Amino acid sequence: MLVVLSGLPGVGKTTLARRVSSAVGAVHVRLDTIEAALTTSGVINASGGWSACPDAGYRIAYAVTADFLNAGHDVVADSVNPLAVTRQAWADAARAADALLVDVEVVCSDRDLHKRWVEARSSDIEGLTVPTWRQVEDRAYEPWSTGIIRVDTAAGIDQAAAAIIAAFRRRQATIVG
After folding, report:
1. Global confidence as pTM
2. Averaged pLDDT, 47-66
3. Name one Pfam family in it (predicted).
């Protein structure tokens, strides 16, 4: 099974991904880790910057996720995933591995809380620069056109994690049952 957590920076995706993957025994694939490694390796600068290869991190994440799925592992993928094309690519990775897909949009409906979280963030990965609040506000983020699970971290990370874990277990029951 592939659980894809999507949402703006600073809404709690990584915290949720860590909790959910630990609770269900899944592999956590974090786009930030991949993109930071690409940056610190010098590959991005050698390629002409992120504008020359804007989807490099996502392409690696899809490939690594496909490998884990094909090896029989469940995966929790963690990325902003702002565009329909990236969302479709995750769906394609699940389909190619004959895995179930659970799309989750993570939001924080309390704008002031979200802003505080973004402004208080610091990078936990060498090579990762966290966005400013202005960058979060200005980010392109297309609305979803397919059915998703939406969790709101303003109501609490524990509640959001529980909702995702419950959805995972319901989907898992359809495989077993």
Report:
1. 0.94
2. 95
3. AAA_33
